[in-house]
């Protein structure tokens, strides 16, 4: 009799898949994924499902969010603008790490978790997940976000304030600094 797959099996399968894709990105575009290599990666439909252009624009971002994909039209095939906080326009060495974090949201939508984003980004940059997590948290910390707190001043994570994983709720899901750096 065939084994009935569970939601946990599907989650583990996606995590394994994004790690494999990240390793492939590292092999093809690494070990130093700079601005030029990032642009080539964004044009590579093997690793980036839909067209993406980067814009340094913090308008669509939530407090503390360093980047988010914004769908350009009614269909994902119309492409996305990866809105990156304008603060990072002067820190081009960080932009690939921030964009990589968001690529799982573009490629897999609501099925991708923050953990998948961390796994993919770490593998694509040849880092451990903890090293990558530290890198993106340091970037998010530069934003000095006014994160909501409870009555005694303890930061609430985005799950508690109604926004899943740094998502505004009406976008494609994914992360961007909101939930990740509150604890992983």
Question: What are its keywords?
Answer:
184 residues, mainly alpha, three-stranded mixed sheet, globular, disordered C terminus
What does this structure look like?
With 184 residues, the chain is mainly alpha-helical. It has one domain (20-182). It is 38% helix and 8% strand. It contains 5 helices and 3 strands; from the N terminus they run ααβββααα. The chain has helices at 7-29, 35-42, 95-108, 114-125, 129-141; strands at 52-56, 67-71, 80-84. It has a 3-stranded mixed β-sheet, covered by helices on one side. α1 (7-29) runs parallel beside α4 (114-125). It is globular, with a radius of gyration of 16 Å. 37% of the residues are buried.
Please give the structural blueprint:
Blueprint: H1 7-29, H2 35-42, E1 52-56, E2 67-71, E3 80-84, H3 95-108, H4 114-125, H5 129-141
Helix pairs in contact: 1-4, 3-4, 4-5
Describe this structure in a few short sentences.
With 184 residues, the chain is mostly helical. The chain has one domain (20-182).
What's the helix-strand series? HHEEEHHH
Largest sheet, if any? 3 strands, mixed
Helix segment tally? 5
**Fraction of residues in H or I helices:** 25-40%
Q: What's the gyration radius in Å?
A: 16 Å
The domain tally reads 1
Poorly predicted regions: 158-184
Strand content: 5-15%
**Biggest sheet, spatial arrangement of strands:** 1-3-2
General form: globular
């Amino acid at each position: 009799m065939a084994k009935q797959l569970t939601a946990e099996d599907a989650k583990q399968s996606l995590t394994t898949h994004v790690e494999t894709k990240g390793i492939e990105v590292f092999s093809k575009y690494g070990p130093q994924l700079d601005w030029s290599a990032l642009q080539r990666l964004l044009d590579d439909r093997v690793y980036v499902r839909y067209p993406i252009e980067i814009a340094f624009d913090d308008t669509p971002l939530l407090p503390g969010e360093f980047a988010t994909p914004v769908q350009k039209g009614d269909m994902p095939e119309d492409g996305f603008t990866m809105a990156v906080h304008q603060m990072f326009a002067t820190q081009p060495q960080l932009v690939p790490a921030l964009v990589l974090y968001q690529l799982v949201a573009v490629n897999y939508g609501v099925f991708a978790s923050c953990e998948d984003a961390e796994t993919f980004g770490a593998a694509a940059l040849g880092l451990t997940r903890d090293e990558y997590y530290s890198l993106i948290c340091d970037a998010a910390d530069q934003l000095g976000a006014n994160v909501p707190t409870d009555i005694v001043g303890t930061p609430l994570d985005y799950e508690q304030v109604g926004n899943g994983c740094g998502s505004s709720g009406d976008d494609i899901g994914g992360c961007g600094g909101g939930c990740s750096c509150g604890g992983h």
